[in-house]
Amino acid sequence: MMKALITGASSGIGRDIARELSKRGYDLILVARKKESMYELKEELNTNIEVISMDLSIQKNVMDLYEKVKDKNIDILINDAGFGLIGSFRKTNLDKELSMIDLNIKALHILTKLFLKDFIERNSGYILNISSASAFQPGPLMATYYSTKSYVYNLTLAIYEELKHMNSKVHISCLCPGPVETNFNNVANCEFRIKALSSEYVARYAIDKMFKNKLLIIPGFKIKLVYIFGRFVPNKLKLKITYNIQYRKTSNYK
Fold it and tell me: What's the whole-number mean pLDDT along residues 129-148?
C-alpha cells in the first residue's frame, strides 16, 4: 500500500490533499498541531490514517518526526505546514516572525533533505512543497511571509535540477497558489480582495500535476498571468503594486 506524509494536515490545502490522496488509495500520516481536526478528518477517510500532533516550528520535533516515520515506507512527502503575518516590518512581532521562519523554512528544509536522501537511495518518491504566488516577488507589509515562500520556491527548483542531472526517478514539485479559501486569512489577519480558489480544487489540481512530474504548479489562469508578466515588470513597480494590494487588506498596521 502506498503511503503519504502530510504536514499542515488539519486544515486548508493540507486537509484537502489528504482527502484527495485517500480517494486515490493512499494510506496517510497526518501531522499538525490541531489533534481534534485531524481525528475528525480521519473519521471521514477510508484508508489507513495515522495522526501525529506536533508543533513543527520546534526543530527537535521535526527531527523526532522523521525518526518516528522514516521506516514506514513513505512514498510522498507533502510539506504544507506554514502560516503568514501581515503588517509593517517595523511593527510585526519578532517572536512570531521567527516562529514563521522556523515552520515555513526550517521544518520544510529538514524534512525535504532527510526524505530526499531516502527517496534517492531507493530511486522513487514524490515531494510536493507548498509555496505561494507570493514567492515571485518581494512583499512589503508581508515581508517575512513572502520571503519564506521565496525560499521554498527557489529551494525546490534547485533540487529539481540536481535530480535531473542525476537521472533520478525521484520527483519534486512546487505548488504556488494565489488566494485560496482557507484559514490562512484569519491567522495572517488579512482579507483577500480578489476571488479565491477553493482549497478542494487547488488540492486536486496539485496532486494531478505532481503525478505528471510538473515542477511548478500554479492553479488558476489569473495567477499564471501574474507569474508570466511579473518577469517583465520593473522591481520598483512590483513593489508599489504589492504594497497597495496588502494595504487594502487591512488598515491596522500603518
Answer: 94
Instruction: Give me the residue spans of the domains in the chain.
Output: 3-249
- Whether 187 shows a pLDDT value over 70: the answer reads no
Least confident window among 112-126, 143-157, 158-172, 221-235: 221-235
Active-site residues, by number, are: 145
List Cβ neighbours of 94 (8 Å cut-off, separation of 6 or more).
none
pTM of the predicted model, to two decimals? 0.89
Q: What is the pLDDT of residue 194?
A: 55
Which residues make Cβ contacts (< 8 Å) with residue 103, sequence separation at least 6? 56, 57, 81, 82, 83
What is the per-residue pLDDT for 162?
Answer: 98
Report which of 165, 129, 99 is spatially closest to residue 8, judged by C-alpha positions. Answer: 129
Which of 104-128 are b and which e, b meaning 16 or more Cβ less than 10 Å from the residue's Cβ?
Answer: bbbbbbbbbebbbebbbeeeebbbb
Distance CA 254, CA 250 (A): 9
Domain made up of 3-249: CATH architecture: 3-Layer(aba) Sandwich (3.40)
| Dihedral angle of Cα 104, 108, 109, 114, to the nearest 10 degrees | 170
Q: Provide DSSP, 93-161.
A: -HHHHHHHHIIIIIIHHHHHHHHHHHHHHHT--EEEEE--GGGGS--TTSHHHHHHHHHHHHHHHHHHH
Angstrom distance (rounded) from CA 247 to CA 125: 41
pLDDT of residue 74: 98
